[in-house]
Amino acid sequence: MSAFDMTPATDRLATLVAAVPDDVLTGPTPCPDMSVGDLVDHIAGLSLAFTAAATKEPLPGGPAGPSADASQLADDWRTSVPARLHGLAEAWQRPEAWDGMTIAGPIEMPAPVAGLVTLDEIVVHGWDLARATGQPFAVEPDLLELLHGFVAQFTGPGKEADREGLFGPEVPVPDGAPLLDRVIGMTGRDPAWSPT
Description:
Layout: H1 7-18, H2 36-55, H3 77-92, E1 101-104, E2 107-110, H4 111-133, H5 141-152, H6 160-163, H7 179-186
Antiparallel strand pairs: 1-2
Helix pairs in contact: 1-3, 1-4, 2-3, 2-4, 4-5, 5-7
């Protein structure tokens, strides 16, 4: 698989984070047991984790997965989290990010696979945050096609064990639905989800 530019997706997520109002931080998200504030904290952590995957440098504090705890949000999260997302995109623009093996969270994997996992996290949690906060969301067609190909590997009968720890149970979506809705359903989310 060739390298790709995930900047449009990280830019969109950065814009979404910066626009989250205080009064929805305790509200629900499509992620079970995760408030909007928890989700923003998770995005902050995954930005660091997948930047480390690109640079192949150890993650500060060890390889544990990103937290999801609103109480850990920095006071400047509306600027610091978008800055982390911009750094993430820059790290994956370097050709060496796509070479060899790397660590994503606690798992070793080929760097190109880590790039796809990064895109999945950015796009799907971007959708989560947009839905939870009433903001518009879109994905560039080329990135959405890449993501669809990645998620489809874990979809269908007999793939339940492969999905463990990655996605929830699939949500059926009509074949004629928009590709984003189908991808979201494959990740275990209901494309019609709303906070009310």
